[in-house]
Amino acid sequence: MANEKNKPMAPYAKLPELEEYGAWFKDFADLYREDGILQVTWKTNDGPMHHSGMSHRAIGQLVRMLSLDFKNEIIIFTHIGDSWMTESDPNGWETYSELPTERFQHQYFDDTNLIKNMIFDLDVPTIGAIPGSGFHWDSAMLSDVTIASEDTWMEVPHAHGGLVPGDAMGLMAQHYFGTKRGNYYMMTTRQWTAQQMLDWGMVSEVVPKDKVMDRAWEIARMWKTMSYENRTIMSNLAKRPLKKLLVEDLKLHTVSEQYGSLLRIAAGDLGDQNSGQQDEKYISRTNDWRYTFDYMQQPQNCETWAKFRTEPIEWFKKVEAGEAENPYEVKPVKPYRPAPADK
């Protein structure tokens, strides 16, 4: 009876293990854990992640689940294959058009959760590993340390498609690059290179192509030699500047994009490439074009801005006719697995 009296009145709540919540998100992420280091590889099914309402929501939801599993001591965020996300599911935004509730949930909850959960939910060290060019680089740039391949190009593309750049991509450009430079790249959609990201403070290291994941695991295993408590406290210091930034400005940015989109819907000016705001279904062809050619790394003007609405379409016709090659053609690919650790 004495032992019974010393027992807690109730046990710890039972939460899902990695295998269970990994199955929940299997369409959107591959989860691999070794010695407390979790690698999160964004994907859609067996290929690159396709931007959609479903993937958009899944990122924030999965990050919240990861934060509840104390076995995840260090987390690496990456994308499957040799580039970041470039594609969009043309049928993956149907609930975005359902007003008011579904669109409100997507834009008010999902847009902010995708960003804030990376900083406010994750208490452990994080590494962003960018294997190549792509958009929606949130999780990589919000990590404590970010590594990019030397051939990476990125941008804040929203304005080119007629959107207000308010999903925190522009906010991070202002934060990392400085206000004037960040404003310029946000408002002109000009691309920047991996070396510029390193010089301007957006990434921590630039490494040769195909070495990004090796380096991410090398850093994670190095951190693993520190005590769990101290590396976790260290991560809180790393996240503190971004916590203050997001408290101040995140909701203002996201709501501004939502408001701009609703104005275009009300005006009947949202749709194809000739509309004031383009539909999400056109992302794949325009992004593949943007990351194949370096036109967008140059200063933009009226002529080049207008070409964005026509040249990707003409290029895709050539790709489909076999007259041009699309290096971002979607193919099945397997997630990276680290080499065994040295004993």
Mean pLDDT metric: 94
What is the general shape? globular
Please report the number of helical segments: 13
Backbone CA Rg: 21 Å
Total domain count: 1
Major sheet summary line: 6 strands, mixed
Number of strands: 12
Structural class: alpha/beta
By CATH reckoning, the class would read: Alpha Beta
CATH homologous superfamily (4th level) name: 2-enoyl-CoA Hydratase, Chain A, domain 1
Low-confidence parts lasting 5 or more residues at pLDDT below 50? none
How far apart, in Å, are the first and last alpha carbons?
48 Å
CATH topology (fold) name: 2-enoyl-CoA Hydratase, Chain A, domain 1
SSE string, helix = H, strand = E?
HHEEEHEEHEHEEHHEHEHHEEHHH
For the record, the CATH architecture stands as: Alpha-Beta Complex
How are strands sequenced across the largest beta sheet?
1-2-4-6-7-10
* Amount of helix: 40-55%
Please describe the structure with a list of short key phrases separated by commas or semicolons.
13 helices; 2-enoyl-CoA Hydratase, Chain A, domain 1; 343 residues; two-stranded parallel sheet; alpha/beta; 6-stranded mixed sheet
Structural summary, described in words:
The chain is of the alpha/beta class. The protein has a single domain (2-320), classed as Alpha-Beta Complex (2-enoyl-CoA Hydratase, Chain A, domain 1). The chain has 13 helices and 12 strands. Helix 5 (138-141) links the parallel strand 6 and strand 7 (145-149). The protein is globular. It starts with a helix and ends in a 23-residue tail after the last helix.
